[in-house]
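Reopening this one. Same input as before:
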Amino acid sequence: MIVLLVGLTISHVAGTYFLSNDRRDSLIETSERLCADHIAVITHLLDKTPPQERAALVGELGGAITAISLSDHPKVEGRHSDEDELSMVQAALKPYFATVDHSRLRVAHHQTSSDQGRGLWINLLTGFPHDRAMQVSFLLNDGRWVNFEMTMVRDASWWSPHAALSTLAMMVAILVFGSLATSWVGRPLATFAAAADRLGRDVNAPRLPEDGPWEVRRAVAAFNEMQDRIRRFVEDRTQMLAAISHDLRSPITRMRLRMDLLPEGDGRDKMLHDLTEMEAMVASSLEFARDEAVNEATQSIDLAATLAVICDDITDIGLIADFEWSTRLVCACRPTAMKRALTNLIENAARYGREAKVQARRIGSTVEVIVEDRGAGIPVAEREKVFNPFYRLDGSRNRQMGGIGLGMTVARDIIRAHGGDIHLEDRQGGGMRVVVILPQEKEV
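Same output, byte for byte:
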């Protein structure tokens, strides 16, 4: 719109300038010819009139735009100021007088600025016009001079109220119709950008309407096709994981029954322990696949109340979890999925880091949840790996203490599905600090 507005305004002003100059030149030339003819007719009439009657005739012929006087000497002194005007007056007088040379004819013109007695804004709007007057002194056949001063068309500049209003009308039209056009073109692009951002949070989002310019429709159609392929890919992998996990439960159960028939011993106990762990891994994988297949609606919840409930539940099982709750914290999310993600993070901190201290706050258009513990911490090289499925750290976070390595994976998947992210940091004084960022489309 800026390019369109500037370009067309310059073009319009330039066109107005050329057209106005051409029109002004034509009007001035016509006015000068009419004045020359008028002077020639009056001069011829005065020359034919007896001297004693000329004074009365001059009073009758003079007027507001024509001043006529008789004198013994010419009022126009010096050289001619405009040869074109001199030629026009000569041509007009020639039919009535035998000789019209420089000794009998003197022509000049003068301009007086019209800003005298006018306000600055009036002169600015009217283009600072000048009052133009043609002055002519002609020697009659009896030796007396007749003097004329005739007001002609004002010599105004090309800038005038009409030019200003014309330019303003054009600019308003560009802004109005340009806004409609850019809105028509930009609305699909804005929707397209929002859908691309939403795709990272919800692969099951509805398809975009294919409207707008042809290029935008092609881009939207390609985007919809890409989204369908990603959705099919995720669904296929999720169904495959669920099917494998489900099918493994039957052979694991049969193997457990057969182990029970074997005589007791270290070998039998170790095999039973491995089968128990495999069964837990299969159950967790199946649960993870089922959760991925659930399409939960987004709702506004009090995240502070949810965190308080999670901490109370964890405290009930003998762990230490404390939430500093000061006020309500409204957050738009998928409630069940978000509760599971936060439960995994807080329970991990309480179980493996001795205690969990939870804080939550709103910063602008984001909600931040911080979970701190007092454990041994996680090495920097291992912090990204803990989000991999079935990855577990040695030491305090080992298999004997529970878990198969899906808690952090599930938590980050859920957080990122909400458009947020999760970071691991060192806690001042020792331990880990988990920071969860949840963007909100608007402050609730």
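So the earlier flakiness isn't reproducible anymore. For the record, The CA atoms of residues 389 and 406 lie 5 Å apart.
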